Amino acid sequence: MAETMSVVLNVNGAGRSVSVEPRKTLADAIREDLGLTGTHLGCEHGVCGACTVLMDGEVVRSCLMLAVQAGGAEITTIEGIGAGDDLHPMQRAFSEYHGLQCGFCTPGMILAGIDVVSRNPDPSPQEIREEMGGNICRCTGYQKIVESVQAAAAIMSTEGGSA
Amino acid sequence: MKPAVFDYSAPESIAETVDLLAEHGSGAKVLAGGQSLVPMLNFRLARPAHLIDVNGVDELSYISANGALRIGSMTRLTALGESGDVARAHPIIPAAVAQIGHRAIRNRGTIGGSLAHNDPAAELPAVLMALDAEVTARSADGERVVGMQELIEDRLFETTLGDTELLTEIRIPAAAAGSSFGFREFARRHGDFALAGVAAVITTDGSTITQAALAAFGGTHATRLPTAEAALVGAETGDAAFAAAGAGAAADFPSTSDVHGTADYRSHLINVLTVRALQDAAGNSGGGNG
Ligand SMILES: Cc1cc2nc3c(=O)[nH]c(=O)nc-3n(C[C@H](O)[C@H](O)[C@H](O)COP(=O)(O)OP(=O)(O)OC[C@H]3O[C@@H](n4cnc5c(N)ncnc54)[C@H](O)[C@@H]3O)c2cc1C
Ligand code: FES
Ligand code: FES
Questions:
Q1: pLDDT tens for each residue of chain A, 163 residues long
Q2: Torsion angle in degrees (nearest 10) through CA of B7, B13, B15, B19
Q3: The domain spanning residue A22 has which CATH number?
């Protein structure tokens, strides 16, 4: 085992110091060192979007960043978006419109959906398909995901709700 | 999979970076946006002994539009695609950037990383070739300026930059008055690497084409299309000239076969995409996938 470095990860509003090898990805540090297993790993090469998190409000692939690169940034994972009864409109819409089946892609889909609506408050189905093309789902066939994001956009325009 | 062990440095200046490159030579790799390098690390297709992370080198991140456009190599693709200065100077750049990967990829990926990685299916090497861009490369020994064609030659997944050189800046000369562009690529799904694509910039004096710069990607390497350019210069804009340019482009194109398409199919795409890109340029419309 190589030398470790210590880095403070600010995740979902709380700063925690972790000691990691430089080769550890941000995704693995979030899951293994912080125990936040809502961030999923599908492909580990940037293609599937399951590991999507927000860094300073922007979507990034946590499998393509090193944990040691994330010091000083504000990271938001799915756990920071909403949990239990306190769900984000995007999460409620996915639940209501059946935007998920197995749920593996869902954390990435929710974060990508929030990002799309934050930049385009009233996206068309075509725009949602193009913008979310970087997130792969093996279950739903996408139709219900597109409907969920559209429904969430409608709720968010009345209720508000960013990340 | 997970990356193999490496030593890690995070310099904060160009001077520090080039010293580290001089010290570690071919054992070191520069880490820019990581959108190509980290997948290779994760799959252990790359196993550098030393990683030099330049994300903290703030002096590599800028867009300056006084005269020629000058872009720091660490400028993120999202910033490049959203810059008003870039869109005003060379609207073909945001049109091309919109076709690169997905938002999350563009939020991290950089212009310098895209050029240094030189994927033969990448948009920017070809677009910057058509714009006659130059890059500056810094090493501990000094700085040199390299034209895009000299940077790429006929290489793929590498450039003519040396192991100890850092790509620092991209310089793009101002567009000729009256120039217009077309950009067309064909990808199976939005955000995928294209099977083939064409960047075209033409200048007319009303109806006669006075200048033409065309470049293609998706073959064995990014390349200018000299036969297509020769077919256009001096000709009237219109179907006859565009058809001749399409055929010339297909002849110039270094086509290649893989699981996504045969060489014949890609050459056919280049012909069709060239014609469409030129039609877009003549009509001054945008372009895109297809
Ligand atoms: C899912 C996915 C889809 C993608 N789709 C596309 C696409 O459609 N079109 C496209 O063009 N690209 C695509 N990409 C690649 C993306 O654009 C990369 O960001 C880009 O190719 C590399 O830039 P980077 O800043 O991430 O470089 P890195 O990955 O950090 O580095 C890439 C290489 O360049 C070297 N390097 C980087 N910067 C410098 C420098 N300043 N000086 C010297 N060497 C340097 C590194 O050492 C490394 O060898 C995709 C990537 C993914 C993961
Ligand atoms: S696990 Fe990161 S994109 Fe697939
Ligand atoms: S719900 Fe199963 S992968 Fe999307």
A1: 578 999 999 999 999 999 999 999 999 999 999 999 999 999 999 999 999 999 999 999 999 999 999 999 999 999 999 999 999 999 999 999 999 999 999 999 999 999 999 999 999 999 999 999 999 999 999 999 999 999 999 999 988 766 6
A2: 0
A3: 3.10.20.30
- Name the residue in chain B with its Cα closest to that of A28: B2
Tokens encoding A113: 């959906």
Residue A41 corresponds to which tokens in the numbers above? 């790993």
Task: Tally the domains of chain A.
Answer: 2
Q: Are residues A23 and A60 in the same domain?
A: yes
Put simply, the answer to whether B5 touches A2 (Cβ < 8 Å) is yes
State if residue A136 touches ligand 3 by the CB under 6 angstroms criterion.
Answer: no
Evaluate whether B100 touches B185 at the Cβ level (below 8 Å): no
Residue ranges, comma separated, of all CATH 3.30.390.50 domains in chain B are: 181-285
Q: Are B131 and B115 in contact (CB under 8 A)?
A: no
Q: Both tokens of residue A39?
A: 């961030």
**Is the C-beta atom of A140 inside 6 A of ligand 3?**
yes
Region(s) of chain B under CATH 3.30.465.10: 58-172
CATH 3.30.43.10 maps onto chain B at: 7-56
Say yes or no for a CB contact (<8 Å) between B1 and A44: yes
Q: Which residue of A69, A115, A133 is in closest CB contact with B191? A: A133
Q: Are B171 and B72 in contact (CB under 8 A)?
A: no
Identify which ligand lies nearest to the alpha carbon of A105.
3
The CA distance from B190 to A127, in Å, is 11
Pair (A62, A113) in one structural domain? no
Domain B181-285: assigned CATH number = 3.30.390.50
Q: Among all residues of chain B, which has the CA nearest to that of A119? A: B103
| Cα(B222) to centroid(ligand 1), Å | 15
For B175-202, the pLDDT digits (tens) are 999 899 999 999 998 888 999 999 999 9
Among candidates A21, A28, A69 on the partner chain, residue whose Cβ is nearest the Cβ of B55: A69
Does one domain contain both A22 and A59?
yes
* Type of residue at B72: G
End-to-end CA distance of chain B: 35
Relative to the CA of B99, which ligand 1 atom is closest? 8
Cβ–Cβ below 8 Å for A60 and B104: yes
> Is domain B7-56 in CATH 3.30.43.10, yes or no?
yes
Number of CB pairs, chain A paired with chain B, less than 8 A apart: 86
Q: Which domain holds residue A67?
A: 5-80
Distance B48 CA to ligand 3 centre (A): 35
